[in-house]
Amino acid sequence: PGLGICEWLLTILSFLFVIMTFPISVWFCMKVVREYERAIVFRLGRLLPGRARGPGLFFFLPCLDTYHKVDLRLKTLEIPFHQVVTKDMVTLEIDAVCYYRLENASLLLTTLTSISSAIQLLVQTTTKRLLAHRAFSELLLERKSISQEIKVALDAVTGCWGIKVERTEINNVQLPAEVQQSLAVEAEAQRQARVRVIAAEGEKAASESLRMAAEILSSAPAAAQLRYLHALHSLTAEKPAAFLLPLPLDAI
């Protein structure tokens, strides 16, 4: 609806007062808006049509108009730890960071009362909804893609509020004590399995070497005799007081 008779009368009287007191009134009717700010002007409680004022100078009636400045720079919002349940019924606590900027100042002022609380609750509910379709292992391995999905889902909602979500990141993941214990047991079992595999591979390599050595010694009886004497020499070097008299291999 348009302005009423009283509103038109007050507006005309205000303009006449500004003209009559010119140039003194100009100091009260001109305001400056910085490059990263926009001003939203309300006249008699109604939002003035058109885009937001700024940057630079803008005119308003000091008796009838009120204005609000909106900062368009990138803002950071830390989402506190909140509980989520994954697809495989693992309960976690995660926190996140959301980067956003204000795009439509007029729509923002006429839509939201508390920007930070609205975005915080939206991030928490969106995270719970998306992680309910993801397994615990996917959350640990695909954190970047999950953060991108959360950002797209948030941007689809905040666009109606005049807010542009630039980036969303899952910061920390806190696991319950029982989940940490089960993961530690699983990791220890995997390490023990790798140790057994390495030991078995070492035994296999040693047996292959012994088999090749046995084939070489069996082809030369003198080499077997020399290897036998070398082993005895090693034993006497460790214990000099002991004397061993080996029998010939043929006699044995």
Question: What distinguishing features does this structure have?
Answer:
252 residues; alpha+beta; Tetrahydropterin Synthase, Chain A; three-stranded antiparallel beta sheet; 8 helices; 23% strand; rod-shaped; Band-7_stomatin-like; membrane; transmembrane helix
Model description:
The chain is α+β, with helices and mostly antiparallel strands and 252 residues long. Among the domains are: 5-71, no CATH class; 74-179, Band 7 domain (Tetrahydropterin Synthase, Chain A, 2-Layer Sandwich). 50% of the residues lie in helices and 23% in strands. It is built from 8 helices and 8 strands. The chain has helices at residues 5-20, 26-29, 105-109, 115-131, 136-141, 143-158, 177-219, 221-238; strands at 30-33, 37-43, 46-47, 56-59, 65-71, 75-85, 91-102, 163-174. A 3-stranded antiparallel β-sheet has the order 3-2-5. A 3-stranded antiparallel β-sheet has the order 6-7-8, covered by helices on one side. A two-stranded antiparallel ribbon has the order 1-4. Helix 4 (115-131) crosses helix 6 (143-158). The longest helix is centred in the C-terminal third of the chain and has 43 residues, at 177-219. The protein is rod-shaped, with a radius of gyration of 41 Å. The model has no long low-confidence stretch (mean pLDDT 80).
